Amino acid sequence: MEIRWRPLVPEEDDDGPDREPLDQFTAICLAADELMAEGLGDILVFLSGEREITDAATALAEHLGSRYVAPGQARGHAPNAVEILPLYARLTAAEQHRVFEPHTIRRIVLATNVAETSLTVPGVRYVIDPGTARISRFSTRTKVQRLPIEPISPGVGQPALGPVRPRGGRNRDPPPRRRTTPPAPSSPSRRSCVPRSRRSSCKWPPSAWGTWPASRSSTRRTPARSATAASTCSVEIGALEDSGTGASSDRGALTPVGRSRHPPHRSAPGPHAARGRKNGCATRRPSSSWRRSRCRTCASARWRSRPRADQLHRRFTDPTSDFLAYLNLRRYLRTQQRDLSSSAFRRLCRAEYLNYLRVREWQDIVTQLRQLAKPLGLTMHPVALPRPAETAGASPAEVAAAVVALGRSADTPSADAVHQSLLVGLLSNLGNWDERRRDYAGARGTRFVIWPGSGLARKQYDWVMAAELVETSRLFARTVARIDPSWIEPAAAHLLKRTYSE
Question: Cα angle at 368 between 365 and 369, to 5 degrees?
């Protein structure tokens, strides 16, 4: 296998010292020209995410001009034509499967980094790797999950240059690989690959492990700051007493809440997901697992037919709470599944841009959560659904309206009860609207805005809470609900410090 380095910043002797550095997409176009001149064979380009794939596809289309062929339009074109195929998770199964179909003209496949180890794309002869990836990092100070695009470290980059990582060429000789920038071993921050345990959220407190991290082997040892953050999280949800010292090694004792807790489902984002158990609304609370499944359910279809999908999904939107919107959708699916045959329900999901397999996955998760709740003594009320007589023969729009009306009726626990139960586990994700800066002021000095896909994105409420804070282009709050500030003091009573004066 041949490796070629093409830095974005050229050497001083390359056409003089005043030559401007190349942007990444221009470098990819030039690299594609160089490799296509070598001979026949498809080209696989690794990129950091969907936005980068879209930008690269646009740049290549402009660069190729009349030689460009859109995905799925390869028939009848000249032999020198080039088909550009994106490959990422939001595409439909049929769109993803195009990369495996037989073809007669050259292809350039633009794939996310997951294709480096998870897929074998036939026909790939050359690989272009910009040397960057989107790395998940958790900030123990701000409790924010960040997804920055970073240069890969030599610890990852050197094995990546071997025949194992570019699986697109495993059915042929090892492909020539062209990197836009060589690794920089002299950079301290990139000298080695940071273990996942040192850049991820330490979900469960040390008390749940049974042993303190220092007693673990050195290869599995949890960083001190992560252990401290886990203990702080336990104090926030009332599972540990506050020792007052701030040292992880001097943690307090387990409270009755901590002793009665067990880790919830493996897909839960952390112990706060299991904290709320009062107000008689255990089954009304949408789990984070369902939220993630629903995002995967709708994403590819929304991208393909966005206006129609948005119109259908907007039926369940609640102007004050994304949690209630997901709950409305859950009730709708349960009602339709009750009233329709299996084949009719699958057709409904397809027509309304919902992935049936993701719906089944969500149902399995709910079943497992219900089983885990039994030893905790949680009373799991059945989810209220419209009566069969109300939905018999009704159109999907009428069923959706009946589900939303039921959620607002007195026959179900109030929305306030749902949000108060959620609040005790989401105290770190509160936000207060700042009119001057037009964003929300959060805990630990963070400032965030509401994710554009939220039903609250174009509204401003004095106080909101979020299921999670994720930083991409900026810090976004995802799955948001308006709250009454009077709920905060009772929920955070064990965290408050009071002073008295005249």
Answer: 85
pTM (2 decimals)? 0.61
Report helix, strand or coil for 103: coil
β-sheet with 177-179: strand ranges across: 3-5, 177-179, 124-129, 42-47, 106-112, 82-87, 68-69
Q: How far apart are CA 455 and CA 462, in angstroms?
A: 16
DSSP string, 246-283: --GGG--PBPHHHHT-----TTSSSGGGGT---TT-GG
pLDDT for 159: 42
Which pLDDT value is given to residue 150?
Answer: 76
Q: How many CA atoms lie within 13 A of 480 on its CB side?
A: 29
Lowest mean pLDDT among 47-56, 239-248, 387-396: 239-248
Q: How far apart are CA 50 and CA 172, in angstroms?
A: 28
Give the C-alpha distances (Å, rounded to integers) separating 303 from 73, 84, 95, 103, 360: 19, 18, 12, 25, 22
Alpha carbon distance 104, 40 (integer Å): 11
Q: Kindly state the percentage of the chain with pLDDT values over 70.
A: 65
The Cα 466–Cα 446 span in angstroms is: 13
